[in-house]
Amino acid sequence: MQNRLAKPAKRLPVAPKRSGGGTPRLPTTILGVDPSLRGTGYGVIRTGKPFPQTLAQGTISCPAGWERSRCLAKILATLRDVIREHRPTVCIIEGLFYAQNLQTALIMGEARGAALAAIAEAGLEIYELAPRKVKQAIVGYGAAQKIAVAKMVQRMLNLAELPAPDAADALALALTHAQENGRFGLTAPKKI
Question: What is the percentage of the chain residues whose pLDDT exceeds 70?
Answer without folding.
Answer: 81
